[in-house]
């Protein structure tokens, strides 16, 4: 690949820089979505507890809105993984082998695989896996905070009423509201922790954190 007569090594260097740039761009888009979700959640929590007269269902609206942000971020994560996967293929098979040829390469067909992906770019992560990833990383914690806040709002924050009565929304009985919320969070837990085959290209592995600090002296 680095033969001067082909110039492919130089082409790959520019291609790699381009992929890394797109990885950074999509990583920034993921972070922006999370930032908006956290900002909105903080505003809703502040308003919900600023007065006992404020309706509790504003927290449920917050759950819906944060879930919408989860869907947006999952879609962006699928695009992000396309470029991250390409960068990892180049790192594993070109750079790692150039630094230590004795270890060989991860995939003997990596150039053909990369060529096919450049010809026909495809998403490599399903919607389900993307949702599970973003839930484990960020959104399960955010949605859990909203759930705890809502439970506190209809119980301890309104001690003069029965909590099922407080949970009512208009003509919708409190038991129905609680049931819907409970089913929603059971589904979230199922999506988050249900075993499934991983297709996203991993970057980090567990290892000894002191490996790079060891010296012979």
Describe the protein.
- The chain has 217 residues and is mainly α.
- α1 runs antiparallel to α2 (57-99).
- 22% of the residues are buried.
- The longest helix is centred in the middle third of the chain and has 43 residues, at 57-99.
- It has one domain.
- The protein is built from six helices and no strands.
- It has helices at 8-48, 57-99, 110-119, 127-154, 163-166, 174-193.
In short:
The chain is mostly helical and 217 residues long.
Question: What are the SSEs and their pairings?
Answer:
Elements lengths: L7 H41 L8 H43 L10 H10 L7 H28 L8 H4 L7 H20 L24
Helix pairs in contact: 1-2, 1-4, 2-4, 4-6
Strand content: under 5%
**pLDDT < 50 runs, ≥5 residues:** none
Number of beta strands: 0
Helical content band: 55-70%
Order of helices and strands: HHHHHH
Largest sheet: none
N/C terminus separation: 39 Å
How many discrete structural domains? Answer: 1
Mean pLDDT across residues: 86
- Globally, the shape reads elongated
Query: Over the alpha carbons, how many angstroms does the gyration radius reach?
Result: 24 Å
Provide tags for this entry.
single chain, 217 residues, mainly alpha, 6 helices, 67% helix, elongated, DUF2270 domain-containing protein, UCP01500, transmembrane helix, membrane
